[in-house]
Amino acid sequence: EIKFTIDKKVQKPTKGGEYVDNLSTTDEKFAPTQNVNFQLVVSNTGSKDVTLNVVDVLPSYLTYVSGGTYDANSKQVSNQVTLKPGENKTFTITAKVVDASQLPTAQSVACVTNVARATNDSGISAEDNAQLCIARGTVAVQPQVPTKSIPNTGPEALALAILPPLGAAGLYLRRKAGL
Fold this sequence. Notes:
Elements: E1 4-11, E2 19-20, E3 35-44, E4 50-57, E5 62-66, E6 69-71, E7 76-83, E8 88-97, E9 109-119, E10 125-135, H1 156-177
Antiparallel strand pairs: 1-2, 1-3, 3-8, 4-7, 4-9, 5-8, 6-7, 9-10
């Protein structure tokens, strides 16, 4: 049986960022002329060897840098791979965001989808995509500050814990006294 999958991810724009399925408008954004790394993992999930043509189509506002054979007319990056059953292969494709003058002027953020497809000789294919967003102006990425420790809670928290039983006792005594 011939079965295979492709998993497409984009690397977050922070230096050494993790690879994720998609980056939306609420996530970090890429800046003009910044490199964008994509990761494609092709896996043979069937029981026979499979030879695949893996094609990645670069979206608008991205230009090719490295990671396969590039066709400028179709904006496609191609790689060939033969996989044994249970085997997988990872490809990294690097593109670059165009200059700010080539981005749409009507919007401050442009989101694009990058599509990748793996196809065998029989025409069987698998497809996945990854979305990213580009900010027209400069992007200030704030580094994450790790928390070193959780603040201590002191004895003042104990005083707060005793208030509800005291309040209940006060209400009880007030009712008993007929006030």
